[in-house]
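I am still getting used to backbone structure tokens and would like to learn alongside you. Please make up or recall a protein chain and show it to me in full. Would you write everything just below, so we can both look at the same thing?
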Amino acid sequence: MPLGTLDRAPPPFFKQGPSALSKLMVCSALALFLMVADARFRITQPLRAAIAAVLYPAQWLAMRPVVALRSAGSYFADLGQAQSSEAAARRQLVEQAQRALQVEQLTQENARLRDLLALRERSPVAGMAAEVLYDAADPYTRKVIIDKGLAQGVAAGSPVIDANGVLGQVTRVHPLVSEVTLVTDREQAIPVLNTRTGARGIAYGEPAPHGAGGLELRYMAANADVQSGDLLTTSGVDGVYPPGLPVARVDRVERRPDSAFARIACHPQAGVEGARHVMVLQPLGAQQMPPRPAPEDATPAQKRGARR
């Protein structure tokens, strides 16, 4: 058989086709073209939406065990928290019920004692609800503006309280709004009573440069019986604030040997920074205070006038 008649081409089984480099260049160019076309013309957005719609059931089924485990963990965590909250609420309810019973008993005893001693009854203090609109523009004072004014019967000097204690005092009244000076203002002073010892004092506002500030119980002797945690309430001797309203709680007491007075820092009970809804009380006024006794050297006519 002549050699020229032999087919020298490789069998089809060993044919390689394009080289690997050529395939890489073609695929890279195609990928670059698709990326540019997708970025400019969004040509693959419908395809992606269709694939996502087809694969969603499979994804949903695959996520069920994970969601079930998370739900079970959240359920047990919420259950434990709910049980703890319920136990705390039950304890608080029992304590409040005990206090309510004690308050009712003390009220009855107080009424009997007042009848026995022929003491006058304390007049109830009227009040109206108000809402805090905004803080005063002066950054060097601690004042807020409420939505009640002369049209609603607000009077200058009226005490303002929130759910926790004394918030401040009305210092300026306009036709529809009023200005309330907070207890932490440096110009504010409140006669207070230490509920533990019964000692009276005066609490002055101590505004902080970058915060709500507090109060300072001034002119208390260095050896005065004042401790951290003592509750200070209004004493009622000023004729403005009704007695018994919480004002502040003692934070720390500093007794220095070089001073005859102790430095007593207090934290206000009312929400001086976040109060929204408040109650404006009517000041006690002279009509609710007992008349002043006549001087010893007064004539009988003057004494009769003083009694009137």
User: Anything to note?
Assistant: The chain has four helices and twelve strands. The chain has two domains: 34-121, 127-285.
